[in-house]
Amino acid sequence: MNTTLSNQQISFYQQNGFLVIDQILSKTELASWREAVDEAVKQQIDQEGTHNQNRGESYYKYVFIQCVNLWKKNEKIRHLALDPRLGKLATDLTGVNGMRLFHDHALIKEPWANPTNWHLDNPSDPYYTRQATMFWLTLDDATVQNGCLYFLPGTHQTSRF
């Protein structure tokens, strides 16, 4: 896992609120993560169905399939999510001494799914701290054509935009 950061990368993250780390996982690690997530998502979908958001809004239900807290149900995901290298990466970026896992969140964007609207993640979480961070690891290639993630630099300093 490529978690070594330069001072320039840390400064960029702290100023902009995001950082792209190309190939953070080796090819072997990426294959292992894909296998573990596929297995855990299938297990949860088999138990709860494909649209397991538990929300009534029909548009939102068809944006993506999401499975939360797989680390609590699947040993492989627990091992990956609690990898100390990710914790160190989080503390290096935020400048704090320790970090807790709030949750993992597998998002599966199916072909022709509804688009995801612009949003801020942290204001909807049940905690508030400017030291919180999230890792978004794409297990499949994310491109402009298939729906990559966009960031608005600096929005980590506000609760709305």
Automatic annotation (TrEMBL):
Q: List, alphabetically, the InterPro entries matched.
A: Phytyl_CoA_dOase-like (IPR008775)
Name listed for the protein in its UniProt record: Phytanoyl-CoA dioxygenase
* Species of the source: marine metagenome
Q: What is the lineage of its organism?
A: unclassified sequences, metagenomes, ecological metagenomes
